[in-house]
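Final report, closing paragraph on structural work. Over the funding period we assembled a curated collection of sequence-structure pairs, and we close with a single example.
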Amino acid sequence: MKRAKFWMIALLAITLTVGFTGCDKDDDDELSGTSWSNTTTDDGTTVMTLNFKSNGKGTIVTEYYWTYGGTEEKETDSESFTYTYKAPKVTLTLTYDDGETATATGTVNGNKMTFIENDDDTIVFTKIK
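Its predicted structure, as stored:
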């Protein structure tokens, strides 16, 4: 009887462990907790950083650097976005204050995330975290 009770408890423990770890939504979201960066140097320097959080949300921080009249200037802008990720495709949706949205779909390959804009410009982000 003790042996049967032991196996029932062991089976219950295994079932609960598999059940709890298998239901974690973040397990399917490999982007959660990562950051990706892109730097361009046209008319100054622009650094864009995508920060992916849990529950399909994130922020994009854009830093603009330039020199004006011999003085180095910097401006920072931050916006929230939502995202979906089904490897290797990622889709970002940014909602502006006026309710309009912008959507971009990219591809993740290793430590690179690539977006192709409508005019065939390619933007490549590199994983930094």
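The domain at 27-127 is CATH 2.40.128.300 (Lipocalin). The longest strand covers residues 71-86. We thank the funder for supporting this effort.
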